[in-house]
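To whoever is covering the structure queue this week,

Two jobs came back overnight. Logging them here so there's a record in the thread.

Job A:
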Amino acid sequence: MRALGFSTFVSLTTLCLAGNAWAGPPLGTGGPVHVESCEACDFVIEPGTPTADGAMMGVGPGDLVCVRGGQREFLRLYNFVGAEEDTITVTNCEGQVEIDNADRGYGLTGEGMAHVRVTGTGDESVEYGFSVRASRDGPDYSASGVVFNGLSTNYELDHMEVYEAGFAGFNLKTEPRCDLTANLGNFVQYETHLHHNYIHDTRGEGLYLGSTGYGGREYSCEGTPTLLYPHEHHGFYVHHNQIEHTGWDGAQIGVTPVGCEFHHNVIYDVGREGVEYQTNGLQIGGASECEIWANRIEGGPSNGIIILDGRDTFVHDNVVADFDGPGVYCNDRDNSEVAGSSYAFIHNTFVDVRDGGITLFGTTTVGHVGQNN
């Protein structure tokens, strides 16, 4: 864990592209990608093209793929596979990519993606190069704005505005499968970076990152009810996002026992739908082990931060304000999976939290620290 009360800021140099000399940097290290014109890109996805398969297009490690600005109902990306030190970059060119529909379950999707960055920094005149609205809210299913699934791993999503989603703004996980390929023990989603996005006015969560917990859920496999278990995430790096006016939780992270960092985010006005147990600012669950720092979380009918079945968790240098419940609520629920874990709460500020600053329940976690709150 980091030293208490200390954050490191890295100045990122703007990357100017000349012809096809682009080589994608490792995930999480790239600055803005400014493309002078779509002609500077290796591949261009036109507004009239709703789906793009990287393998069929011949896209490979280090390629620069541009999505031309303009209106479209949806965009589905398949099989863009880069390399660890040579990622594929997908960005907008010549304006903002405006995705808007009211009748599908998604706006922007990625399936079978690996070592790829999708960034809305292609046109320096537009702050969020991808604007995504997918507003379907039933009756049989609701839409999420940005959905990455299909065994996608090692990816980065940044500089997008996602709004009025029928369910979540971002939904990043692969559901368990009857053939077990996406299930616990067989698949791990690695290194997911989510930063500098604006998410607002969703009917469900702003961010839905990973399944709620390790506990299995019943699926129908060839007509037979079958208990299937969700995969783990190793590396959720979530920072500098703004989340406002969510129907359910502002953000939820689950089943992330390795590399969970949530920092420099703003969450405001959550739980507007009033659905029980879905009204928290930030929820950490499913034996996740997280560091949470430098966030401002404000306005909701229950808990500012809730930690359920959490492993070692470090909460520091946050401001949590205006919640009807406690600033931080923790409950290990006597779960043996998190036995021996500890929670630390250092340098946090709680303002107008109407049921206490920090509330802690459970018998399996030990050695907690509270200092200078």
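Job B:
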Amino acid sequence: MTARRAVRGVSGVGLLALAAVLFAVPVRLALPPPAGARADVRPDPRIVGHLRGLDAGLGRGEASRMQRLFPEGFVFTHALVGLSWARVAAMDAGLRDEALGHARASLAAIRSREGRRPFPSDQSPPGGAFHAGWGAYLAGQIVAASRDPAEARAFAADCVRLAAALDRTPFPPSYPGAAWPADASVGVAALALHDRLFAPRTSAGDGAAYGPTIQRWVAGVRARLDPETGLVSHAADATTGTAQGGARGESLVLTLRFLAEIDPAFAREQYGRFRERFVSTRYGLPVVLAYPAGYRGAADVDSGPVIWGVGLPATVVGLGAARAVGDAALAAPLDRELEALGMPVVWGGRRSYGFGALAVGEAFLVWARLTPAAPDAGFAPVVGAAWGMPVAATSGLLGVLLLLLARRVLWPRSTSVPETSRASASTRS
């Protein structure tokens, strides 16, 4: 009997906890989520807490665990956490030293033996477009915050190697014989960052060291758009750069996030088409589709989970793309949605989402939130004023049902005859 009561107690407490999570969803939909950059240009403390939680996870080997789930999980996790810390270092002088320390540790991890292992070194650029691009971009963001001369020289050397590869083809391979335009966009963004930091400027606007390379790359991308959608393709022929695989949500949002730093006009043009074909709603919530509207496709290692046509990673990173091009009409409700459904938990000053089950997903969310927001470009609303009501009502109803179920589990009605009554009946007989 004691063991049965213990099991019943644990089950009841679990139901109560789940009910509390459901009741929190409507509240979080109504409250403002962590802001990427507040009016005083200081990072929201909740974002810093989230980064500290991610760093604790990195110390436990979470990046290595992500590598077992995704082909680039180790580098992605470290790159995104490092970039977020570099952004914090640039925004907050009080956190600068701590933030730079974490960002440098992530860069060292990317360039460690474990970080390099999945990427053949005999490629151009060394390690391939993915590894070289993310490493260089993170190195550049660290230099932007530190202005350290030695780090600046190392970043400049990275850019020389990237430019040499990009001058040969707009989409250098990430693996032998396999190229993805989104991977190339990271390296091009690193070159654009280099020029913003170091290139001499004149009244005519020339003098950019990598301006010609960037212009040729943009022209090459324009000439190789997916013919069906007019958008940057998911994959490309590693030799010719010809579009392959059509346009995909998860690669588009990454490309758009970086394209906004490379060529803002081209980014806005591509973003408008993306918004028409990939931005939709499900049950009143704004989402980014994994495949263009009207198309069906299976989930794979690139798309991540696809539910009801929604690309979950694409929706998270879509927040960063929306902020980068000034689509406040999508970014604001998307941010609230991710905060409400992410089930954030705070413990010991650290913040985690989804019970810390997927570090790379959390890292994408923090990085997206820290994307510098462009001025509002006046995009049309994606959702109405009461967009969160269906989810809030459903969540509240499920919470009530769980409370009732927990009550039955914890305090069941007794159907047995009390011992005293049994004794009385025996005496009367």
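Note for Job B: The two ends are 30 Å apart (CA to CA).

Please reply-all if you pick these up so we don't duplicate work.
Q.
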